[in-house]
Each structure stands twice: as structure tokens, then as C-alpha cells.
Design a protein that fits this description.
By secondary structure, this protein is mainly alpha-helical. The protein has 17 helices and no strands. The longest helix has 30 residues.
């Protein structure tokens, strides 16, 4: 069978998503090449660069350490939830090379799974195949999406989050509970899915039979159970039930929890008082994210808006807004809304070009340690 015939037999969601997925990896490769060029040829300008320019950087280094040596190797590791590094460790038994290979392979496979499933979800919700295609593309080449190529937990989390919503929206509540629990074991934000699960489960609860009501309860309980399981394990290992959050609240990480207005004010203060340009970008993206949340409530079912709002609020509720773009990217309904806004061919071409360029820039700055992903 010819390649063209095989391609035509592939599901539409895969055919629409794969070109963007490949393009994203080319963009990230270009960002690493650009960073290496700056380090090699202009070392005096590469302020703060790391010696090892690879797909395992920043948080990826912790995931690699957990997968290879466990949490005991570094007490700081407890702030990273376990599913992604442990799944990578299991995958390492059947993949060639080091743990790094397993981490990057799992992240990239999950990244493809995420956009394919996102395509399916959007098509099911709206019946608009072109919108589904655009959503898949934005899921691949959003400015913060370079972490979907790195050894980060975002691809695994987003795949599980979209799977949970697909189960909720098709009334398969028991499966939603399972996927929700796994999402909560992957990222701290996973527990927020319970809010949307509660909204979806409440619809038709009175008319459901005993089994149907029990499955709805499972859907709501799944994310908190996943989070609770990890916290109980850390309690046994460290003696502190809230150890992951305590570490994350240190000044060297996210800092103490504040209200979103204070978080934005702190970022503006860093810009005006300390001449740091990065926090100003966070504020700009915060304005965009809040606007998109409003549009999400207007154009998508309420459960999508609830998850997006909770995610953005949590992302803004810290003294330090570093990594805000990545945290907001976890609110995948915002990707769908962006795809709705740029709906003409000209608009989507301009949006894809701008997003890809920003993704290249962000990936390069992150590789040089000039931006916190």
C-alpha cells in the first residue's frame, strides 16, 4: 500500500494534527540551535545560559532525577507530582538509551495524543471540522507550547484532562473519574477538574438511577482522590501532608499565595522598580488569558469556563508570576476559544505565524535560561 493511501486511511483528527505536531518539533529544534549559536559565538551575551542545551531543562531536570533516582535524591522534587516521571521510568525498561529518552518520548507521544483528542472533542462539541483543525494547530504552536516538546509533564496532563472532559461530556462518568484521578496525579492543577466534573455530574443527577448517581460521584471524587493519594504518600515520606505546596511556596519558586490582583501588582512592581521586562510580559498574557476566560463562558459549555477560570486564577495567585504562560496553557479550553476567534483563512495564517514566531523566541530564551518556562 502506498504512503498516500495509508495517509488517507488515517483518522481525520490525526491527519489534521500531525503536520502541526511536526512543525512544532522543527520550531523547538530551531530554538535549541539558535541558543547554541548564541552560546558558542556570543558567549558574552548568553547571560545565565546552561551548559547543556537539551530537551531536559528546568523542571525536566527534576523529572529526570525522579525517574532515575526517586524522590529521595532531592527534597525539592516533592513539588513535582509522580505520574509522568514514574511512567517514564516504566517506559525506560523497553526503550533504548537513558531515562532522558523515555521522558522525551513519552512527552512527545502524549503531545500528539493531546491534539488528536482535542480535535475529536472540538469536532464533537461544535460539529465544525475546520475549528477542530485550528484548535489542534494552536495546541501545537502556541507560544508556551515548546514545553510540549521538552521533558515536561504538560503533555501527559493535557491528554488526561481532555480525555476527562470527553468522558464527562459523553456521560461516561466512571471513566471520567479515572482519567481525572490520573490527571491529578500528574499536575497539581488536576484537582481543579473536579469543579467541572461537579457541574457536569449535577446535570441529570435527580433522574439518574442508583448506578448513574454513583458514577457521577466517582467523576467528582476522582481528581481529589488522585491528589490525596500523592499527599498521603508525601506525608509518609516527609511527615508533612502539604510538603509539595510548602516547597512550591518558597521564594525561590512561586512564592507565597496571594490574590490575583496582588500577583499582578507584584509583577508590575518588578518591572517599574527593578527594570525586569519579563514580569511585564506575564501581565500582558494575564490580560489576554482573563479575556479568553470570559469568551470561554460565552461560547463553550460552562464546565469549560469553570476549569479555565480556576486554572487562570490559581496561576495568578502567587507572589511570582514566572511560568504564567505555561500554567495558563494548561487551561486547554482557551486554545479552543483562540481557534474560534481566528476563523478566516487570512486570520489563521497570521495567527499561526505569530504564534510560531513567539514559540521560537520563548523556546530560545528558555534554553538560555533567560525565561522561566
Amino acid at each position: 500500500m502506498r504512503v498516500a493511501e495509508i495517509w488517507k486511511r488515517c483518522p481525520l483528527a490525526l491527519r489534521d494534527s500531525l503536520p502541526a505536531w511536526v512543525l512544532a518539533r522543527l520550531i523547538v529544534a530551531a530554538s535549541l540551535a539558535g541558543a547554541k549559536f548564541i552560546v558558542d559565538d556570543f558567549p558574552q551575551r548568553a547571560i545565565g545560559h546552561r551548559n547543556d542545551l537539551s530537551l531536559i531543562g528546568w523542571d525536566g531536570e527534576f523529572y529526570e532525577l525522579i525517574a532515575r533516582a526517586g524522590y529521595a535524591a532531592d527534597a525539592d522534587s516533592y513539588r513535582f507530582f509522580p505520574l509522568y516521571p514514574l511512567a517514564s521510568k516504566a517506559l525506560n525498561f523497553v526503550t533504548p538509551g537513558s531515562t532522558t529518552v523515555a521522558l522525551v518520548l513519552l512527552a512527545n507521544v502524549c503531545s500528539l495524543g493531546f491534539v488528536v483528542l482535542l480535535h475529536h472533542l472540538v469536532q464533537r462539541e461544535t460539529g465544525d471540522v475546520d475549528l477542530a483543525r485550528r484548535a489542534a494547530w494552536f495546541g501545537c504552536i502556541a507560544p508556551a507550547a515548546f514545553v510540549m516538546v521538552w521533558g515536561y509533564a504538560e503533555p501527559t496532563f493535557l491528554l488526561l484532562a481532555v480525555a476527562t472532559f470527553l468522558m464527562l461530556r459523553t456521560d461516561r462518568f466512571a471513566a471520567a473519574g479515572l482519567f481525572g484521578a490520573l490527571a491529578a496525579l500528574t499536575r497539581p492543577l488536576g484537582v481543579l477538574i473536579a469543579i467541572s466534573a461537579a457541574f457536569e455530574a449535577s446535570r441529570g443527577f435527580r433522574n439518574a438511577d442508583v448506578r448513574g448517581r454513583a458514577e457521577r460521584v466517582v467523576a467528582v471524587a476522582g481528581p481529589p482522590i488522585g491528589t490525596l493519594a500523592y499527599l498521603l504518600w508525601t506525608l509518609d515520606r516527609t511527615g508533612d501532608f502539604l510538603e509539595p505546596y510548602r516547597i512550591q511556596a518558597l521564594a525561590v519558586h512561586r512564592g507565597k499565595t496571594v490574590d490575583p490582583v496582588t500577583g499582578i501588582a507584584n509583577a508590575l512592581s518588578e518591572f517599574f522598580d527593578h527594570d525586569r521586562i519579563g514580569p511585564l510580559f506575564h501581565v500582558g498574557w494575564a490580560v489576554v488569558a482573563v479575556a479568553l476566560v470570559v469568551v470561554t463562558f460565552r461560547r463553550l459549555p460552562a464546565s469549560y469556563g469553570l476549569f479555565s477560570a480556576a486554572t487562570v486564577i490559581i496561576a495568578l495567585s502567587s507572589h511570582n508570576l514566572d511560568s504564567f504562560e505555561r500554567y495558563a496553557f494548561n487551561a486547554f479550553p482557551l486554545i479552543i476559544v483562540v481557534a474560534m476567534i481566528f476563523h478566516t483563512r487570512r486570520q489563521e495564517t497570521l495567527a499561526f505565524t505569530a504564534a510560531g514566531a513567539l514559540m521560537l523566541l520563548y523556546g530560545t530564551l528558555a534554553a538560555l535560561s533567560l525565561y522561566v518556562p
